[in-house]
Each structure stands twice: as structure tokens, then as C-alpha cells.
Amino acid sequence: MQEDKQEVQTQVQEQVQVQGQVPVPVETPPEKRRFSRARLIMIIVGILMALLVLAVVASMVANNGEPATVVPTPSPETTEESGDGLEEGELSQYASDPEVQAIGKALEELEKKFDETRVREDALNIPLLDFEVSF
């Protein structure tokens, strides 16, 4: 390495032909160490494996060395009674309210209009295309 630097320095001095001056040392930039792709992949895989082992050890320490236990999720209990506290067939306190009755009538009229309205438009059919075209 040192010999290469001296050789480069002498070549530069010969090309410049400096006379009567102190030669200036020529420094070459240091060589960059590059990792090969395979070595980089191995480093990444090693780090991932170390993290995996660390996670397994941490889970065993958290469970005092026992395997993790699976606790079943409780299902909600269903009952036959309704959630509003009314018996079947019993009317709510708002059933006789005139405003609620007006909303009910308006809803019935809207449903009736919706049932009578034709949603499908026959005039907007896709045009028929003639695929038998010859040139």
C-alpha cells in the first residue's frame, strides 16, 4: 500500500516536472470497504433470528417458563325477554303521542309511494351492436 502511494507520487512529480521545490505528498483517497451483497443478507438474517430468539425468551420469562394458555372468549348470554322492558303486545308510552303517530303516517305514505314508483327505466336500454362487420 505504501509502495503504491510512493509510485503515484513519483508519477505525478514527473508529469508536473517541479524543479527546486519541495515535493508535495499526493494522498489517494482511502479505499472504501464495501460489503458484498451476500454478507449484507447474512447480517440481516442474523439480526432477525436474534430478535426471534429474544422474543421467544421474553414470552417464556413473562409466563414463568410455562407455555402460553389460551383463554376462551365468553359468549354473551341470550334471554327471551326484549330489551325495552315491555311485554309482548304491550304498547310503548310514546305510541299514543300525536307527533309519533304523524311520523308513522308519513312513513307509511312514503313506503306506499316507493312501492308504486317504477325504478326500472325501459327507455334507457343498451343499444344493440352489430358484431358481424365485414370490410
UniProtKB/TrEMBL annotation:
Region (Disordered): 65-95
Composition skew (Acidic residues), residue ranges: 78-90
Domain of life, per lineage: Bacteria
KW Membrane (keyword) present: yes
Keyword Membrane: yes
Membrane-traversing stretches: 40-62
Name of this chain's protein: Uncharacterized protein
Keywords assigned by UniProt, alphabetized: Membrane, Transmembrane, Transmembrane helix
